[in-house]
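ARCHIVE CARD
Drawer: 12
Card no.: 0347
Subject: one protein chain, sequence and derived structure
Cross-reference: see card 0346
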Amino acid sequence: QVQLVETGGGLVQAGGSLRLSCAASGRTFSNYRMAWFRQAPGKEREFVSSIHWGGGNTLYADSVKGRFTISRDNAKNMVYLQMNMLKPEDTAVYYCAARRVLERDYSYWGQGTQVTVSS
């Protein structure tokens, strides 16, 4: 059974940085794509970034390009989201997600971690 556990959220001032971590377990993820999504109060969940576990190919939402960096540590089964130059509009619950490469929808989700950016 796939388990995704996010850590690293918190309260930070605008312009600051946070690193989110996602511990993945339950299977071999070499043929999976891992992603970060976020959901702000009153808004729909939105895509933030994704990475192919095996090849490292990355994608970013336009709103975070140049500020956020996704990475993975294959040996530790960890996925990270380094968030720099944070803005109040980055405030949201951030979720780690996983899907098989050939599937369209993300099947596995973590419980989320709160990120709050104060102005």
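Annotation on reverse: Residues 15 and 85 are 4 Å apart (CA to CA). The first strand starts at residue 3 and ends at 7.
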